């Protein structure tokens, strides 16, 4: 009896596996049919959309559309010109000559420049005369060779700083 029960169990397991495989196949087929139906509906709706667009575009002429767009552009330009004309200052009170105003402006700028130049401190001119030959320069001028720079070298560095400041101010 136990052997018979074991055989029945094996048969039932085999039938269960077959039924499970059959159900899986049916499920796959059902999904494929649903997808096919969805694809068919999509294609049908795309066809309807194409026909509708064709009907809408039947009455449209590209040349007419181009002409319409040019008309719109021209009207926008006219509107801009009108807006510019309205927003510009009226010519009332323009009794000043443009050349006279420019001359006065240049004069004021020159005065400002002259005032700024008065405040500039120029470096002092060296009091020693230059030697006639390059070999007779004082030893303190060769500061890059010396360990201690001479006092005139420090003065020259200060003068160079002042010249840099002047150049920066002028530019």
UniProtKB/TrEMBL annotation:
GO terms for cellular component: cytoplasmic side of plasma membrane; cytosol; ESCRT III complex; late endosome membrane; multivesicular body. One of its GO terms (biological process) is protein transport. InterPro entries: Snf7_fam. It is found in: Cytoplasm, Cytosol; Late endosome membrane. The keyword Calcium does not apply. The keyword Ubl conjugation does not apply. Its main location: cytoplasm. Keywords: Coiled coil, Cytoplasm, Endosome, Membrane, Protein transport, Transport. It is a peripheral membrane protein. Pfam families: Snf7. Belongs to the SNF7 family. This is Charged multivesicular body protein 4c. It comes from Aptenodytes forsteri.
């Amino acid at each position: 009896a136990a052997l018979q029960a074991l055989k029945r169990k094996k048969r039932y397991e085999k039938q269960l596996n077959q039924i499970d495989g059959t159900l899986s196949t049916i499920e796959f087929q059902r999904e494929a049919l649903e997808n096919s139906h969805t694809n068919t509906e999509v294609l049908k709706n795309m066809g309807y959309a194409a026909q509708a667009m064709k009907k809408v575009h039947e009455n449209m002429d590209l040349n007419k559309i181009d002409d319409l767009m040019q008309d719109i552009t021209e009207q926008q330009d006219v509107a801009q010109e009108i807006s510019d004309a309205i927003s510009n200052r009226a010519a009332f009170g323009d009794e000043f000559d443009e050349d006279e105003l420019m001359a006065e402006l240049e004069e004021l700028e020159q005065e400002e420049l002259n005032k700024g130049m008065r405040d500039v401190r120029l470096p002092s001119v060296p009091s020693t005369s230059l030697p006639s030959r390059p070999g007779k320069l004082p030893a303190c001028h060769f500061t890059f060779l010396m360990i201690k720079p001479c006092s005139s070298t420090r003065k020259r560095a200060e003068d160079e700083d002042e010249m840099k400041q002047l150049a920066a101010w002028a530019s």
